[in-house]
Design goal:
There is one protein chain. This protein has 496 residues and is mainly α. The relative contact order is 0.10. The longest helix has 34 residues. It is globular, with a radius of gyration of 25 Å. The protein contains 21 helices and 2 strands. The chain is 73% helix and 1% strand.
Length: 496
Amino acid sequence: MPNDQIRNNANRETFWNSIILHKFSKPLVLFFLLFASLFISFVIARQGLVAGIFILIIIVGIPLIYAIVAYPRFGIIIFIITSFIINYISRPLPPDVPIGLVMDALTFMLILGFFIKQRNEKRWDYFKDPISYFILIWLVYNLLEVLNPVAQSVLAWVFTVRTVAVLMLLYYVFVFHIRSKSYIKLLFKVILILEFLGALSAFQQENIGFFSFESKWLNAEPLRLSLLFIYGHMRKFGIFSDPVVFAYNMVAASLLCLSLLFANIRSYKKVILVFLICFFLTVMLYSGTRAAYVLIPAAIGMLAILKLNGKVLVFVLAAGLFLGFLIKVPTSNPSLVRFQTAFKPSTDASFNVRAENQRRIKPYILTHPIGGGLGSVGIWGQRFSPNSFLAKFPPDSGYVRVAVEMGWIGLLLFCVFNFIVLKQGIYYYYIIKDPELKTYCLAMVLIIFALDIGNYPQQAFVQYPTNILFYIAMAIINVTMRLDKQNSAPQPEISG
């Protein structure tokens, strides 16, 4: 029997003997559990369901908080899972329930756990790289926006800086706690499982129909319904907040699967990855998000440049021919028709409206070098300064939003930041020696490249879980280089 198996069996026996048999079998413990169960039953019977939920939060919540802070790798998994399902579980709830505070609390706990661990380990050398330095510059600029003299509301800055700046601190959390290839693989598995569940949800919405709570959520706001019902077809969104987030997640999941095909894995796993790619891209069409349709060909072009070998070029050529067929083939399928219009932007009315909006806002951007303040456009602008000029402006593009809220200086910093991330990712990809780590780095580069492009027609970095995927991808780029250096470093000789 292998030593690891013997050790695991011994650990299980120790756990069973010391905890289950010796601890829980004591009369005092059994009496306490019996008393606690009777007390909880009495409270629920007297006070109702609300008391039961409150007790459940105490029983489950306190140990969970401790686990997230004390065991950050577990906390990261919980955070990723929550970022995927937070919008889905909020739909049956009343609209005034502050479900977003859950993500804020998880973010705070992960950052708290990071500083606790860092105080003991002091591994600041993990962050001596251009990406880490520039994130600090970007964070400082976001914080200084509170002093913007033309900003209409400080509260809008408070609500916006949480998702724009504070959330970016998780990059340091991810870089610090991701320390092995096995944990990277675990993160990939968790992400792909969640993406698959999201794709299944969209498949159900398209082919079976919406659940009753989903239909109720759709019909709660007429504007929401009008935006999603286009060309006689309801755009699908799965477990995500909207069709754009859903489509961009399907793109990211497809690119992750595509990159992992180049890893040294068993054939049956490659078959599973190919199936997932086909499934993700198929359900992506249900979203009706034309911006996402362009991202896959763009990322495949980047893949051809980075890999630059015969097999990849043949694959890219075949993919290009298939894409050309899909663009030109006559069809009455509403999803495929909308896909084809993505490659004819000049004939698209919505594209022309966005172009006109950008032309209209250009003078404002040029005359306001630090912008109109964080949260001056979008839902926070409509809530805190509804009568302002910017509150009525539809930003659409993520880059346009940065330019309007943070000025052309902020846009310049943001573009330089994205350039540095891609530059470091491509550089690391070419110098990493470990083939497995090289594949992981390639996957992250492709995802970031696709999201950078997708941020022009839509806002790619402001919604869960796309923003989390972006920060994880940046962190893994850094981590793959660090792990490769550790693996290739000469090991000290052991004398004896």
